[in-house]
Amino acid sequence: MQVSLDWSAPWFGSIVDTASAVLAHADWLAALNVTHHTPSLTNHRGKPLRFVAQSALPADTSYEAFISDTGCVPTRNNLHDFFNALVWLSFPRIKAQLNALQAAQIAQEGIGPSRGRTRDTVTLFDENAAILAVRQGSEGQALVEALRAHQWQRVFLDLRSHFGTHAEAWIFGHALMEKLVNPYKSITAHTWVLSVPDAFFTLPQASRRAWLDEVIAGTLQSRDAASLTPACFTPLPVLGIPGWWQGQDAEFYADTQIFRPRRAARTR
Asked: What InterPro entries does the record point to (predicted)?
């Protein structure tokens, strides 16, 4: 696989430094096990994290259980798995906790025709999540309330200046990253909103990412698995984030095929 991407795109900001270190080597697959590799980079069982060929995955073992049992991540030579590996290196605690949740559900319920609500939610996080870090206080709260109400004009026009000063988006899902290689307007993230202290915005980029990694992993670990549902996320059309696409005027955000109003609550 030839990797030639526009790493200056804002949606790759969460992994660009990790990607740079990996792609400095001629063989990115081999480089995964030597760049950023420290004894603390482990799965949830404390097993050292390693990236292995897809052929190492036994036919009778699920992908998630294999990672949980061995610390080895089966990795194919394609963009999807390339981004997955970069996220493992960039957010190792969150990835390990998501894997722990998946493995626990598989051990409890087995592999059936459907994953069940908890595994579906964890998969949404793993594949398609963005993290929105929002400053504590009235400005951040106003943005979150408008976002959850799908008040897109208010979020992206009236409160536009809040992005960068009171809110910061981090792309996490590796399938979401793969979509953004060839961006289109309707790409929408399942967004995990996190309240952060003022000091967060003063930290270097790598320190902000490490803070998010630790705090979100801790939250996922402490929560009852049954409480993890799709309602934990709010939709966020990624290219609506200020500065992430061209032509972001009122007409851009008036496109209700993308920036959809919130559905009315069902009544019996």
From this structure: DUF3025 (IPR021390)
